[in-house]
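During the no-cost extension, the postdoctoral fellow (Dr. R.K.) reprocessed legacy sequence entries with the updated structure-token encoder. One reprocessed record is reproduced below for audit purposes.
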Amino acid sequence: MSARVGAKAEAAQVSQPCSQALTSLQSKIDRAKKARVLVAQQIMQGEDWMLDYLSYFNSHLEVLEQKRALLQQAAELARS
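Re-encoded structure tokens follow.
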């Protein structure tokens, strides 16, 4: 087996856990987005005390999306 074929096989093994991590992270992002919508609906119904929760979910979502971008970058680098 050539070094190039071996490197590609190793990259495929490395990218599989990364793919699983991306799937898990996407699930967290989806839940945070859903929670953010529910909080926004409550705020629109006069529950102003939930503004802090909206701020929290906005920040949390930003962190999760940054992690997703880094995981995607790692997967791309592992494939090259």
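The radius of gyration is 19 Å. Residues 45 and 52 are 15 Å apart (CA to CA). The remaining legacy entries will be reprocessed before the final report is submitted.
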